[in-house]
Amino acid sequence: MKYKCMLCGWTYDPEKGDPSKGIEPGTAWEDLPDDWKCPLCGAGKDMFEAVG
Fold first, then answer.
1. How far is Cα 2 from Cα 18, in angstroms, rounded to an integer?
2. What is the value of pTM for the model shown?
3. Whole-Å CA distances, 12 to 36, 48
């Protein structure tokens, strides 16, 4: 499952992780730190929605 930022449209893909923040590929959404932010706009995890 991927997660899309409702503010800017950036999508977190667990298979890719977030190298800009040191998040390794294969990191599940649930395993991201609570203070993780969107690398594009800085939105918190609560601003993301699950997308197929």
1. 12
2. 0.92
3. 11, 9
Tell me the residue type at 10: W
The type of residue at 49 is: E
Q: What is the DSSP letter of 3?
A: E
Say if residue 16's pLDDT is above 90. yes
Distance, in Å, from the CA atom of 38 to the CA atom of 20, rounded to the nearest integer, reads 10
What is the per-residue DSSP string for 4-47?
Answer: EETTT--EE-TTT-BGGGTBPTT--GGGS-TT-B-TTT--BGGG
